[in-house]
Amino acid sequence: MRTGIFIVLTLIKFTMKISVSDTQKQNIATVSAIILLILTVIFSDKVQSAVTQSIRNCLNVIIPCVFPVTVISFFIIESGFPVKLKLIANRVMLPLFGLSGNCLEGVLLGLTGGYNTAVKCAVKMQEENTVGEEQTKRIALLFTNPGISFTVLLTGVTLTCSLLTGLRIYAETVFYNLLIAYIYNKIHKLTDDKRVIRRETDITEAFISSVEASSRVIISISFNIIIFSCFICLVDNIFPFISLPLKLITEVSTAVLYSASAFPLCVTAGVLTFGGLCIFIQNLKDLRALKVKPSSFLAIRIIHAIFVTATEYGFSLLFPESVTTASYFPVKISASDNITGSLSLIFLCLVFLYSVNNIKSLRQPTKKVF
Known about the structure:
By secondary structure, the protein is mostly helical. The protein is 76% helix and 0% strand.
């Protein structure tokens, strides 16, 4: 029953985004909630098992892999790059991608930080008015990448136990990001006249802000993983013939874990690059704020995934002995087995110590000056 209420709240959250009247939204949410509650009660044992497995995956795999890289990415966004580096980047990125040096953070962090980083960085740049509207669109549209956490750490180190496999898939995703951005700029040529802006941010404030933003991202990711696992579980019991494609296109971590055990590595690489509909839903609000067409964003993700899948398939034909298979077993793996687990704990300890000191400083009485 608690799982059913959890699903209902999420359903209401998603239905509020539908472009219909308020009355229609309420009707859709109410009817859907009743149906899901009934299904959850009927398949309560299987739903509970799916939720338990999802929580285990989040704690043992997703959070240790994603949290450290996300903190570092948001820290760089908050602190910014040196002006000299942006001036050098301006000479390269402007003719190739139509992006000025002010877009350097968005480009690099989009390629390294993960699915949401490029869009979040573009929104921040739009709020600060450091780059033009068209350039923020390009950052969000063309430089969304699975990042190091999902390709190298999750797929490479955790699933295949091969760092080189993760690095190869990551290199493929980055290459096609740059290629698609280059082709896009050739079709829609863009020049920029904004000067490179100097940003001064306190390091402590930047770190705390990055940890807070990363925590929100991790909570959102874990929340969606659990919700989509429940949804897939219900669909699998009602319409088993469509559960397979749903597992591959809905939520990326579930899709990667499933495809790695059931399909060749090239399929896993494609699923990883696409990111799933869950990532699309998470970015939907920010994409609208950036005036990016959701259909264009989805189309670019599909094209990107096709290119990476084809490349990985060709690599498997040319070098079959170099292609590793998945060796992931959810029941056996623990958080201590993940190489980034200790880094996550260090970050969490630093946040805890800073929070304690903050509370102590707030409790100290302030001296009155007469």
